[in-house]
Amino acid sequence: SSSGLAVFNLTHAIMGSGILGLAYAMAQTGIVLFSLLLVLVASLAAYSIHLLLKLCQQSGVNSYEDLGTLALGRKGKIMAAGAIILQNIGAMSSYLFIIKSEMPKVIRGFLNYEPAANAWYMHGTYLLLLLALLVVLPLAFLPKIGFLGYVSCVSVFFMLFFTIVVIIKKFSVPCPLPPTNVTLGYYTVKLLKCHLYNSNASNSSDDACSPKLFTLSLQSAYAIPTMAFSFLCHTSVLPIYCELQRPSTGKMQKVANTSISLAFIIYYLSAIFGYLTFYSSVSPELLEMYGLLTRHDSLVMSVRLCILMSVLLTVPLIHFPARKAVLKLLADERPFSWLHHTLATLALITLILILAIFVPNIKEVFGFVGATTSTCLLFIFPALFYIIASREPLLSPQKMGALSLLVFGVAVCLMSITLIILGWARQHPHANTH
């Protein structure tokens, strides 16, 4: 594929529903600290991609799983493939769960009448199965990730549309918000749910409607993992690299840097304008805040539909590395087979549909696993594989940089797991009494 389509594919892989939680992250950290943290995690994501590509250049291998083999043998391959499969199954099933729970609400929002409760288009499961059959499955069957480039263009456009609407709404939404009793809905912030509402916000309208440049609290700690996982695209980097026209590590690094920069701009604009609209009242689900103002705002409903379609179109894109990892584990030495390709695709799509439909607490189930695998794929594995497999001396600048990345990754992983356990303990306090 061309570099342009590769940029769109990688940008699409970076941006999931996590964009909805960044305004809340800014409210918990302040504009200055948020800006510094977002620059840091974007830079570290680009650096970890640099380590992966440099190792590919040195060794001649071109898949995450083979880099694991290079560093740690069969065990490394299983670690890399297992993390990719778990991470992407968790992400895909969570995304489909969003579609199941939110699509009926969006359809109801577009209708000028209250639909019958038993209407088929009000049942999330029916809608999910229909969209999976008509959209996800045909795209997931494509044998090359480059074919999804045009789909990714559409998805990135949806994210741009969302950002533009957030900017426009800044100048029309009053602060403080008028009293309302509309119930907040159910969106997601990647795989790490940060359900801590800012209940300690001051009642003073002057305080509630003034931006904080720098703030630190226990809730600030929840913002860091949310931001750290905002640039996770590493499972898609090497498949995209393999399909570049005249592939080179330098060209792929430019694609990665461009994609991360584009995602950074969209993230930052949506976060700062979302925050400057609602200030300390912003919730972990930015789009729901606009629903507090009016039930049938056609522009907001259009944005919600666009975000849902973008999330839906992300599923076949992140399905590709998951299927590749499955085939790497089970049929690595064999030539390409349409039978294996079809069976792996059907098995994965069936599994994520079952999880999305029958596991109501899917985010809790995959929150712990997702936090672990995300950190491994984003920070720990690129650094660890580079330290072990690179031919450079241990005290070389690159290996010392990789060591720093490894330490950062382990710290983020431990922090994420601790916060998930604390969050679970808060939500289920009775569990401690039995």
From TrEMBL:
Pfam families: Aa_trans (PF01490). Keywords: Amino-acid transport, Cell membrane, Disulfide bond, Membrane, Transmembrane, Transmembrane helix, Transport. InterPro entries: AA_transpt_TM (IPR013057). It comes from the Eukaryota. It is a multi-pass membrane protein. Coiled coil: none annotated. The chain crosses the membrane at residues 6-24, 31-53, 78-99, 120-141, 147-168, 255-278, 298-318, 338-359, 365-389, 401-425. It is found in: Cell membrane. The keyword Transport applies. The keyword Protein transport does not apply. GO terms for molecular function: L-glutamine transmembrane transporter activity. One of its GO terms (cellular component) is plasma membrane. Residues 5-421 form the Amino acid transporter transmembrane domain. Belongs to the amino acid/polyamine transporter 2 family. This is Solute carrier family 38 member 6. It comes from Petromyzon marinus.
